[in-house]
Amino acid sequence: MSRTITIDPVTRIEGHAKVHIEIGDDGKVGAATLHVLEFRGFERFVQGMQAELMPTITTRICGTCPHAHHLVSAKCLDAMFSAPPPPAALLLRQLLNCGSMIHSHAIHFFALAGPDIFLGESSPVAKRNLIGLLEAAPELAKKALRLRSLGQMLVEIVGGRGTHPVTAVAGGMSFALTKESHATLKGLATEALELAKVVLEAGKKALQKDPELLARLPLATNDMGTLRGNVLDLYDGKLRVRRPDGSVALDFAAADYAQHLVEEALPYSYGKQVLLKDAAGATQPYRVGPLARLNCAEVTGTPAADAALAEWKATCGNPSKLVVAGHWARLVEILHCAEKAVAMLADPAILSPEVRTAPGAIQRHVVAHVEAPRGVLIHDYKVDENAIIEAANFIVATQHNIASINTTIKDAATRLLDKKDSELLDGVEFAIRCYDPCLSCSTHRVGQMPLEVNLHQGGRTLRTARR
Amino acid sequence: MAKVKVSFEWLSGCSGCELSVVDLHERLLTVLEAIDIVRLPILMDVKDYPKAALGIITGALRTDHDVACAKKMRASCDAILAYGTCGVYGGPQGSGYAHATGDLAETAFVKNPTTSTHFVPDQGVPKLLEGGVLPVDAAIPVDLYLPGCPPHAYYVFEALRSVLDGKPPQFGEHNVCFHCDRHMKHTDVSALRRVHQGPMENDTCFLSQGILCMGSATLDRCRGACPTRGMPCSGCTGPSEAIVLEPNRDIRTEIATRMSMMTKIPKATITSEIEKHAKTYYAYAMASPVFREKPTFLLRRWITQQGAAR
């Protein structure tokens, strides 16, 4: 039976989108595509700005992971002004990254995806949200909210503000820690570590009690993540691509991204997709984010998270193809970030007043990357001799995942094609949320994501479902 | 007491304003006891526009879809709060004001160096407004404005409290300097310095050091986050009340007057530097008629004078 479905907007994601599903004459799902509906034009209007504004103006690309844009932009400026940051600044920047990762992952797991996982897909729509979760499981929900707050409070102190931090500058940081703020940070990180253990256990249990759910949406594809050696690194390192069979396809430096990655516009979406390309120009999809990072890393470098990673790999596979296991991976990363924050705050070097290197000669073309909560984030700037931006290129996490998201939407739609509208809508939205797509980010070009699912056949709209 | 119904809508923005509500931390639970959120797309599956006492709109008008959504909010809510600098002044994407809308899309889709395709998406995507980004009140009447990128939790709480109590908010109309404890000093500084050129003195006003800080021309909705952490203000909340209300006052003349009094840098040098780098110093509020309608406002010309690439 042919039909058209519209979900408008897709809710509990960061941004606006709709989904289009094509049904063939044989009644099977053909193409399934996510449409991103917003455009802002950052790459154009930053041209002519003074380069030192970039770490704060680019945070405004995304309110959920502003710290990632802030840090990658500051890394670009370090290179632009030939000013490698001193050790204390590197520790502070990584602390900022850990705090923000805790905040972003916690809000996604509990506020956006959590209602499906803890309340169940069949729970009433009006209650299937954070407020419903606060009523149904107040203790856990309050702990999760507290954990998110702790991560964000770390950012508020180190970054100067929670949303849109301001303190990373060319050559380091704009201020040094005082003893008082150091003590406060220690308290926050220690509490976050305890809570991270609790919420990992709770989340893991909820996912494990439904093996069908965990295994429902498998996708064998390439994974990309950042490593030092074989160790997970969320701030800097080489980019590794691991094939679905576990072999290493490629290691490369972010500076060479243009050789290995290619963007493609899609006629129906303001979000471009990114694909891997080989020397001959042949392309293939890949994914980034928590699932991809844990698939690439052998260890995380912190003890409790290493044990959690080993259990995750033993249960979900190595590399894991279980898209839903990305939710569990997010909790393992929260634990790692909390452990790492505690360890960095125990390092006396973080209290050094030397937080900023003076600028040297201007480099006219710079590229840097960082692991944002949702995956690899790349900034590329060209400047004139006075460090005024001439060109900028941003490749953000959700763009890398567009091809994989589309495949997973197709899987979900195929499973649910014969079900009633509400189940199809719920299932497609659940599939999309596994990737924690952030459309503010992917639409630094054009930007809005309400979700609308259309089923089309031979150019005709077959079914539209809204709620 | 019956809970006050609150409805949220987000237009062209970054979702940072939604997060800033969550950044009320513990006080969020207090707020949730007093309000009934009937619509919040980032958190809830409600997709239509239920009736509400207060409608909170974040983000600017970028597409025809944004305009339609703003109108639905106005029709369904008793009062509208424009929340965040995008809703109030257009925000950073308002910097697109310096360019034709088609030019923005060309850069992203046609002329991008790592993009293999060369077309602008046009199938079923919302139409970009030809005149560029606009603040919310360009499409609908707004009852209360709360700029800030995003506004600090202190002001968010105060805005919500005022609605619950039915009394005007006690915001204060001071500028960012109010929260900055740096000292203004007369110095012999004779040349402008840029932020990346450090080192800077931590207890001296940036203007005294020859560094362009927008704090004295910017409304405080941030509690002085930047100057208290070693960073000059970049004006993300938008202009001070004096600039909003007085036709002949402007960011560049306000800043140039103050800085030239404290340093040996001539006022004309400072004015000309700000005009030359208008994109940097007007980055957040460029789309707003508050600037466009001023007799002193020549922003498009200043930017054009820097060459076609700018």
Fold and architecture overview:
The complex is a heterodimer of chains A (467) and B (310). Chain A is an alpha+beta fold and 467 residues long. In chain A, 43% of the residues lie in helices and 21% in strands. Chain A is built from 15 helices and 19 strands. Chain A has helices at 42-45, 54-57, 66-80, 87-119, 130-136, 138-159, 179-208, 211-214, 257-260, 290-296, 303-316, 325-345, 397-416, 421-433, 439-442, and strands spanning 17-23, 29-36, 38-40, 168-169, 172-173, 222-228, 231-232, 238-242, 248-252, 261-266, 269-277, 283-284, 286-287, 365-372, 375-383, 389-395, 445-446, 453-457, 460-464. In chain A, strands 6, 7, 8, 9 and 13 form a five-stranded mixed β-sheet that branches. In chain A, strands 2-1-18-19 form a four-stranded mixed β-sheet, with helices on one face. In chain A, strands 10-11-12 form a three-stranded antiparallel β-sheet. Residues 440-450 of chain A have low confidence and may be disordered. Chain B has 310 residues and is an alpha/beta fold. Chain B has two domains: 4-94 and 123-165, Rossmann fold, CATH 3.40.50.700; 176-305, no CATH class. Chain B has a five-stranded parallel β-sheet, sandwiched between helices. In chain B, helix 3 links the parallel strand 3 (52-58) and strand 4. The longest helix of chain B is centred in the first third of the chain and has 13 residues, at 64-76. The model of chain B has no long low-confidence stretch (mean pLDDT 89). Chains A and B meet through strand 3, helix 1, helix 4, helix 5 and helix 6 of A and helix 1, helix 2 and helix 5 of B.
